[in-house]
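Z., the sequence and structure:
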Amino acid sequence: MIKITNIDLNSVNLFLKEAKLSGQVSRFRTRLIKNIDAKVYEIGEEERSIIVSNGAEVKENGQIAGNGSKETFEKISKELTELRQERSIFEEDTEGQFSKLYAELCNYSELIAGEAADGYDKLMDSFEEGGYNEPHT
């Protein structure tokens, strides 16, 4: 099991989608991407729900609009911040999936920059926090 802060899911996903991996580890990565994609969609729906339930709306450009008071927008902002700071939990689909993916990424030699580099760092922290840096017998 790994835990990733919701606000970090997009950068982790970006790294995983750009990573050059092969064979079994590539399949393990693809399974994790599918789970992260589903969680990102779910969080987007929760964000829209928070906004709408507080009497506002999301415009096409992503801006929050409405006739609410300053307090309403502060409440929306607080709830969205709390949601983004929550940690999502991801389970292995296959035994050894995360330990093998972690081991492969420890030796990853491709150049990584920008948001993808941040995603790599957050993902590796999540693996280590989950105990996947320990030898499994």
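The chain is about 60% helix and 10% strand. The first helix runs from residue 9 to 18.

Let me know what you think.
H.
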